[in-house]
Write a structure and sequence with these properties.
By secondary structure, the protein is mainly beta. It has 1 helix and 37 strands. Strands 6-7-8-34-33-32-31 form a 7-stranded mixed β-sheet, with no helix packed on it. A 5-stranded mixed β-sheet has the order 1-30-28-27-26, with no helix packed on it. The chain has a 5-stranded mixed β-sheet with strand order 22-23-24-25-29, with no helix packed on it.
């Protein structure tokens, strides 16, 4: 049995979501001054509940001044950005962002969101099969994508940005036009809720995972299953990308014109583990590596192939980081001989784990950084999403800090995704889709 990885406890900052409204009211003379609340928490320590006085600026009458008290320190950067610190809890100044806009809301709540790389579109999914696609600039009308009859569990755009892939608890995967809402393909075969999706290459093949414990690769043109991989545990989320190590010459990959070579799949399970497998390994010699994140069910997984990092998110609020083998390090994935069993298991343990609260992790997404390791966008069921900064202090040793807090939520589950222009989009269980401008 592996030794549990110590969990780093990170702070969390909450602040009155109406701060931008208060600023507007002070500036237009509706109020001369107003107090807002600001709280800082760290599990195991006494929380700090401060107040911030908002008044009209002494020098610039069109601006406001902030005076913090009761243990918090607050500096205004702009009307949508604050730096907040708390000496008592050893919380350094942390960027806290408010939404630039709330361009859309969905009755019943939003559970998942995706953005297109091209075309400037978003797609959201919610309860009872609700799916809607829209334009990030608001130039085009929103379109309802109709066909699912149960909660939407995952959404994705094809590379063109004009076609959407959706997965539902109704056990189906559907292909929709983002232009006119038509549904030319429906992929069926899973026997329980479909929980994750991935577009492979140009989109002739797509992948889906399910609580039935299977990973399916579909031929979209024929609506048939090209590959069916069955595992022993339900799958709650998936991430697919290029392997950090080249394929073994002793185990030739199975390649097709549509399946990019050297892809690996990471599959999160309800028993707290994550399975890693190569999609182009022959079925007769497929090896599965188990990433052991603990015993709490996993609800999210993210993969950064550039730095060989995997992040998993659990129901108990724990995020675990794993470092996959690099080309210069021994691989935990052994190459079986022709007489070996068709599936061989090996294990990896986290290089570090962190947690802010016991709220479930709902989404994880790596984001490139100019300073080295990527940052990690984290969504959670308490409505307090944040960006974690990762710093490699020694080979294989990573420290984590809170880089950005995203305020403006209402204690509802949050799902986070980032656009290429560093706009961070957050969908919430209250049905709002919010946009934030991230820092450098």
């Amino acid at each position: 049995m592996s030794v549990p990885t110590p969990v780093v406890l990170l702070p969390r900052i909450t602040i009155q979501e109406s701060f931008p409204t208060v600023v507007s009211e002070i500036r237009d003379g509706t109020h001369a001054a107003e107090d807002i609340w600001c709280s800082v928490y760290r599990d195991g320590e006494t929380s700090v509940h401060g107040r911030v006085r908002v008044t009209e600026g002494e020098e610039d009458k069109g601006d406001v001044e902030l005076t913090a008290r009761d243990g918090v320190e607050v500096t205004k950067v702009s009307n949508t950005e604050l730096n907040i610190s708390c000496p008592a809890l050893k919380v350094a100044p942390t960027t806290t962002l408010f939404p630039l806009a709330t361009p859309f809301s969905l009755r019943g709540g939003i559970d998942v969101v995706a953005l297109s790389e091209k075309g400037g579109r978003w797609v959201v999914g919610g309860k009872d099969g609700a799916v809607r696609v829209g334009d990030v600039r608001g130039d085009r009308r929103t379109i309802d994508l109709q066909g699912h009859v149960a909660d939407i569990r995952a959404v994705a755009f094809f590379p063109s940005g004009e076609v959407v892939l959706t997965a539902s608890s109704d056990m189906s995967v559907r292909v929709f036009s983002a232009v006119d809402g038509t549904n030319p393909r429906t992929l069926t075969g899973h026997t329980k809720a479909v929980t994750g999706l991935a577009i492979l290459g140009v989109g002739r093949l797509v992948a889906s995972c399910s609580l039935d414990g299977s990973l399916r690769i579909w031929n979209v043109a024929t609506s048939t299953t090209a590959t069916h991989i069955r595992l022993t545990q339900p799958i709650t989320s998936l991430a697919i990308g290029p392997a950090p190590t080249p394929p073994s010459p002793s185990s030739p990959p199975t390649t097709t014109a549509d399946l990019p070579p050297n892809l690996i799949a990471l599959l999160a399970h309800t028993n707290g583990s994550c399975s890693l497998l190569a999609l182009d390994e022959p079925a007769t010699s497929r090896t599965i590596t188990t990433l052991d994140a603990g015993s709490s069910p996993l609800f999210a997984v993210a993969y950064d192939p550039v730095n060989a990092l995997v992040a998993t998110g659990a129901r108990d609020g724990t995020v675990s980081l794993f470092l996959l083998p690099s080309p210069n390090s021994p691989s935990p994935i052994t190459t079986p001989s022709p007489t070996s069993p068709s599936t061989i298991s090996t294990d990896l343990t986290p290089i570090m784990s962190f947690r802010r609260s016991s709220a479930s992790i709902t989404s994880l997404a790596f984001s490139p950084s100019s300073t080295g390791l990527p940052t990690l966008l984290v969504g959670s069921s308490d409505g307090l999403p944040f960006r974690a900064a990762l710093l490699e202090v020694a080979p294989g040793t990573i420290e984590v800090t809170v880089k950005e807090e995203y305020a403006g939520g209402d204690c509802e589950s949050a799902f986070v995704v980032e656009a290429q222009d560093r706009n961070v989009w957050i969908a919430t269980g209250e049905g709002k889709l919010r946009r934030y401008k991230a820092g450098p």
